[in-house]
Write a structure and sequence with these properties.
The complex is a heterodimer of chains A (143) and B (464).
Chain A (H helix, E strand, L loop, with lengths): L5 H8 L6 E4 L7 E4 L22 E5 L5 E6 L11 E6 L3 H14 L7 H16 L14
Antiparallel strand pairs in A: 1-2, 3-4, 4-5
Helix pairs in contact in A: 2-3
Chain B lengths: L8 E5 L14 E3 L10 H11 L19 E3 L10 E3 L37 H14 L3 H7 L11 E3 L9 H10 L3 H9 L2 E2 L11 E2 L5 E4 L6 H5 L6 E4 L5 H4 L9 E4 H11 L24 H6 L1 H4 L22 H7 L2 H27 L4 H9 L2 H20 L19 H28 L5 H8 L4
Parallel strand pairs in B: 1-5, 5-10, 8-9, 8-10
Antiparallel strand pairs in B: 1-2, 3-4, 6-7
Helix pairs in contact in B: 1-2, 14-15
The chains are: A alpha+beta (143), B alpha/beta (464).
Family (chain B): Belongs to the universal ribosomal protein uL4 family.
GO molecular function (chain B): structural constituent of ribosome
InterPro entries (chain B): Ribos_uL4_C_dom (IPR025755), Ribosomal_uL4 (IPR002136), Ribosomal_uL4_dom_sf (IPR023574), Ribosomal_uL4_euk/arc_CS (IPR013000), Ribosomal_uL4_euk/arch (IPR045240)
C-alpha cells in the first residue's frame, strides 16, 4: 500500500472527523480535543494526532489496574488488527515510567512524545488507584 | 510506473466455506491503481452536494391557492385599509382581506413553483474523479477511522474477501462472514445506533435514523450475496460497475468502510483503468493525476537532496535592544556624539564661574553685619534699647559731621553697660553705612544725569 502521507491525511481530517470534540465557545473561541485512541494529550493537532502519524504511542488503562502501552508498527499501516504492539504493564510506577520512556524515546521511536507519554502514564496510573470509590468515568477513548 | 510486480499485494481473506487448497500466492491480489488515485475531498464534497439533489421530488404550493376569491379593494374613504376585500355578504368571510401574503387565507409570498431547478448537472469527468477519490480513501485506515467506522479488528484494508462470499444465501451465514472478517463491530455499531429522528422529519416518513455500516461490493450479477446481506442493519450492497458516490462517501465525507469480493476487486482495474492504461468500460477515461506524486512533505524536507542545499538553522535569535533616550542617558549620548562630554564639562564650569562671579559681586555690595546682629540678639531688652539709641545717635553724629569726616576719638555719652569694643564696632558700622549711602547718593545723581543739581542746592541755600 503506497501510504498516503501523514500530511495529506491531516489536511483531510483536520477540519472534521468523528473524534473531533469542540468545547468552550464557538468558532475560533473553542478548544479542539480529539477522542481517538492513539492520541496522548487528546488534543486535536498534527503532532498528537493518532490518525495522521505513522508512529503513534498510546497509553490506556487495561483491566484490573493494569496499564496498556501500545505503539503502532510502521510496516503494518493498512492492517488495523495487527497494527499495535501492545504490552500490558502491571509494575510499580517507576518501572513503568522507565519502560515507557525506553519505548518512546530511547529507541528513537517518537522522542518528541516523551513528555506527553510520561504525563499520560501518571494520570492513567492515578486514575486506576482511585477506581474503587466514586462513580466510574466512562473512557471515551474506548478501544 | 506501475508494473504488476511493483504494486503491493492485498491478501484475500478466506472464509470457512473456502476449500483450503490455495497457496499463499494465489491468495493475494495486486492493488488496483484506483486505490492510488489522488484523494480530493474538495471535489468529493462538491460533487456529492450536486448529486444528492438529483433524487429530489418537486414540491410546490397549489397554483390557485389564495386566489379563489373575487375580492376587490374598497378604495379610500371607508375607514379601512386598501387591501382587496372579499365581496358579498352573509358570512364571516365577507369583507375580509384577500390576496396578500399578509392576509389570512391569502396567497403566500412567492408561491413555490414546480419548475424550480431541482436537479444538477455535473461533468462526467468530475463525477468519475469523485468516485475514484472515494475509492482511494476507502483504502486508508486513518480516513475510514476518522469517518467513524469500527475497524480495529479488520485484518487488512482494503478488505478483500474470497469469492465464496458471493454465494452466501442466508442472512445468518452473512452475519457469520462479517464476524470472521472482523467487520462485525461496525455492523453492530450501526444496529445499536437506530433511533427516532429528532425533528419534524419523524412525522414525514423519515422516522428512524442510524449510522452507516460496511458497504459490500460484489462483481457477479445476480449474486446471492445481495439478498443475504441486505437485511442486516447498516450494511449496504453495490455492484462494482455501478458504484455510487452517495454510498462511497456518505454525507460528503471520505472513507466508507468497504468490503470487496475478490471478483469485484479484480474488476476495478478494467473499470477504471490504470494511470497509463485507458479504462475499458469508460470510454477514453484515464485515472486523474495528483498535483504531487510524492506528497510526503516530511520525507522530502529531510531528504538528502534538500538538506544538502539548505542553509543551517539559526540557533541564536537576535533580539533588538531596548532603545534608550540619549537626552536622558549620558552614555548613550556619548555613543552618538563623543564631543558631548567635553561640551557638557565646559558648560558646567562656565556656569559655576558665572555663579561665583555673581555671588562675589553681590557680596561686595552687601557687607553683612553678622557680629552686631548676633550680639544684638543676645542682649536683654533694656540693653537693646540703649544699643539702638546709641547706634542711631552715632549715625546722626556721623551724618552731621559729614564735611569733616569721621574723627576717631570723639565720644558720645553712653551708659556703662556697653563695652568699649562694642562701641567701636558700632561706630565702624555706622561710618561704613554712612560712606556707602554717600556713594549711592552720588551714583543716583550721576545716573539721573541731573548735572545742575549742584546749582540747585546753591539756590536752595542748603549747606550740606
Amino acid at each position: 500500500m503506497a501510504t498516503v502521507p501523514g500530511q495529506l491525511i491531516w489536511e483531510i481530517v483536520k477540519k472534521n472527523n468523528s473524534f473531533l470534540v469542540k468545547e468552550f465557545g464557538n468558532g475560533t473561541a473553542s478548544v479542539k480535543f480529539s477522542k481517538e485512541p492513539n492520541n496522548l494529550y487528546n488534543i486535536h493537532s498534527f503532532k498528537h494526532s493518532g490518525l495522521a502519524n505513522k508512529k503513534t504511542v498510546t497509553i490506556q488503562p487495561g483491566k484490573d489496574q493494569t496499564v496498556v502501552l501500545a505503539t503502532t508498527k510502521t510496516k503494518k499501516q493498512n492492517k488495523p488488527s495487527t497494527l499495535l504492539n501492545k504490552s500490558v504493564m502491571k509494575k510499580e510506577f517507576h518501572r513503568m515510567a522507565k519502560a515507557v520512556s525506553n519505548q518512546v524515546c530511547d529507541n528513537y521511536y517518537r522522542p518528541d512524545l516523551k513528555k506527553a507519554a510520561l504525563a499520560r502514564l501518571s494520570v492513567v496510573h492515578r486514575s486506576l488507584k482511585v477506581a474503587k470509590s466514586g462513580s466510574k468515568k466512562r473512557n471515551r477513548q474506548s478501544s | 510506473m506501475s508494473a504488476a510486480a511493483a504494486r503491493p499485494l492485498v491478501t484475500v481473506q478466506s472464509l470457512e466455506s473456502d476449500m483450503a487448497t490455495d497457496g499463499a500466492a494465489a491468495n493475494s491480489v495486486p492493488l488496483p491503481d484506483v486505490m492510488r488515485a489522488a484523494i480530493r475531498p474538495d471535489i468529493v464534497t462538491f460533487v456529492h452536494g450536486q448529486i444528492s439533489k438529483n433524487a429530489r421530488q418537486p414540491y410546490a404550493v397549489s397554483n390557485r391557492a389564495g386566489h379563489q376569491t373575487s375580492a376587490e379593494s374598497w378604495g379610500t374613504g371607508r375607514a379601512v385599509s386598501r387591501i382587496p376585500r372579499v365581496a358579498g355578504g352573509g358570512t364571516h368571510r365577507a369583507g375580509q382581506g384577500a390576496f396578500g401574503n399578509m392576509c389570512r387565507g391569502g396567497r403566500m409570498f412567492a408561491p413555490t413553483k414546480i419548475w424550480r431547478r431541482w436537479h444538477r448537472q455535473v461533468n462526467v469527468t468530475q463525477k468519475r474523479h469523485a468516485v475514484v477519490s472515494a475509492i482511494a480513501a476507502s483504502a486508508v485506515p486513518s480516513l475510514v477511522l476518522a469517518r467513524g467506522h469500527k475497524i480495529e479488528e479488520v485484518p487488512e484494508l482494503p478488505l478483500v474477501v474470497s469469492d465464496a462470499a458471493e454465494a452466501v444465501e442466508k442472512t445468518s451465514a452473512a452475519l457469520k462472514v462479517l464476524k470472521q472478517i472482523g467487520a462485525h463491530p461496525d455492523a453492530e455499531k450501526a444496529k445499536d445506533s437506530q433511533a427516532i429522528r429528532a425533528g419534524k422529519g419523524k412525522a414525514r416518513n423519515r422516522r428512524y435514523v442510524s449510522r452507516k455500516g460496511p458497504l459490500v461490493v460484489y462483481g457477479n450479477e445476480g449474486a446471492k450475496l445481495v439478498k443475504a446481506f441486505r437485511n442486516i442493519p447498516g450494511v449496504e450492497i453495490a455492484h462494482v460497475s455501478r458504484l455510487n458516490l452517495l454510498k462511497l462517501a456518505p454525507g460528503g465525507h471520505l472513507g466508507r468502510f468497504v468490503i470487496w469480493t475478490k471478483y469485484a476487486f479484480e474488476k476495478l482495474d478494467s473499470i477504471y483503468g490504470t494511470f497509463d492504461k485507458v479504462s475499458e468500460k469508460k470510454n477514453g477515461y484515464v485515472l486523474p493525476r495528483a498535483k504531487m506524486i510524492n506528497a510526503d512533505l516530511a520525507r522530502i524536507i529531510n531528504s538528502d537532496e534538500v538538506q544538502s542545499v539548505v542553509k543551517p538553522i539559526k540557533k541564536e535569535v537576535k533580539k533588538a535592544p531596548l532603545k534608550k533616550n540619549p537626552l536622558k542617558n549620558l552614555n548613550v549620548m556619548l555613543k552618538l556624539n563623543p564631543y558631548a562630554k567635553a561640551a557638557k564639562r565646559m558648560a558646567l564650569l562656565a556656569e559655576a564661574q558665572r555663579v561665583k562671579a555673581k555671588q562675589d559681586k553681590l557680596d561686595k555690595k552687601r557687607k553683612p553685619i553678622t557680629k552686631i546682629i548676633t550680639y544684638f540678639c543676645c542682649l536683654s531688652m533694656h540693653l537693646r534699647f540703649w544699643v539702638y539709641l546709641y547706634f542711631i545717635g552715632s549715625l546722626l553724629l556721623v551724618s552731621q559731621s559729614r564735611a569733616s569726616l569721621m574723627q576717631p576719638g570723639w565720644k558720645l555719652p553712653c551708659p556703662v553697660y556697653l563695652s568699649h569694643s562694642v562701641i567701636c564696632l558700632l561706630q565702624e558700622e555706622a561710618s561704613a553705612i554712612n560712606s556707602a549711602s554717600k556713594s549711592w547718593y552720588k551714583t543716583m545723581i550721576s545716573d539721573s544725569d541731573y548735572t545742575e543739581f549742584e546749582n540747585f542746592t546753591k539756590w536752595l541755600g542748603a549747606s550740606q
